[in-house]
Amino acid sequence: MNEQGGLQKEAMTRSERRKRKRQFVFVCLLFVVSACVVGAWGMVKRETNEQKVIEQFIIALRQEDVHTLRQFIDVPLNHKSLSPLFAYLRQHPEGYDRIRKELERQKDDRVYIKGLTSTPPIFLMKLSQGTYKFEPALYHVYVQTNEKGARIFINNDYVGETNVPLTKVGTYVPGLYEVKIATDEHERTETISLFGGERIRMIRLDFN
To answer: Where do transmembrane segments lie in this chain (predicted)?
Structure first.
């Protein structure tokens, strides 16, 4: 009788162990599924937020809304410093789509390394303290000329003189710029577009 009771007790113990094992497996599966769902939801939410911010940024560019753009752009800018960008986009409205496509590619493939890549995106999207910011490309402009002592103007602002054959005139955000060199007798002007491409730009302006 005792032997039969022991067998029944052992059988119940095995049954309980199997039950507990199934419960443990179920809890583990539930945890994994929950983690996957939460992760996927977080990814979708992030993608949605990024897309929303990109659209808001493009709208602000189209409307030339300096106040909103200053909140988005990660360098101090005012209406004057944004005017070349507005001028370019008015002449080249396809530029809005180009900016949007570049920003959307950055969400999936952030291959640009600041300071190492010679062709930066027009705007680099980044997350700073929980807020999305857009960092404009900075283009370094040089003037080559055979005229020593010529005055250099960028968008009618005096920036220096040509004391050496190759003169750095400044660093500029994306946009349309008019580069002019002038002496008391002559002047020469060229319009350049800084909108994608190499960071270093050289403009040749000679007097014949």
So the answer is: 24-44
pLDDT digits (tens, 9 = 90+) for 61-76: 999 999 999 999 988 8
What's the domain range around 171?
A: 139-204
Task: Say if residue 115's pLDDT is above 60.
Answer: no
Q: Which of 186, 153, 126 is nearest to 161 (CA)?
A: 153
Give the sign of the dihedral formed by CA 47, CA 50, CA 53, CA 54. negative
Question: Running DSSP on this structure, what letter comes out for residue 72?
Answer: H
> Rounded CA gap, 191 and 154, in Å?
10
Residue 41 scores a pLDDT above 60: no
**Residues 104-113: tens digit of each pLDDT:** 888 655 555 5
Identify whether residues 82 and 157 lie together within a single domain: no
Q: How many CA atoms lie within 13 A of 64 on its CB side?
A: 13
How is the chain split among helix, strand and coil, in percent rounded to 5?
A: 45, 25, 25
User: pLDDT tens for residues 44-103?
Assistant: 445 568 889 999 999 999 999 999 999 999 888 899 999 999 999 999 999 999 999 999
User: How far is Cα 58 from Cα 43, in angstroms, rounded to an integer?
Assistant: 23
Same domain, 132 and 169: no
Predicted TM-score (pTM) of this structure? 0.73
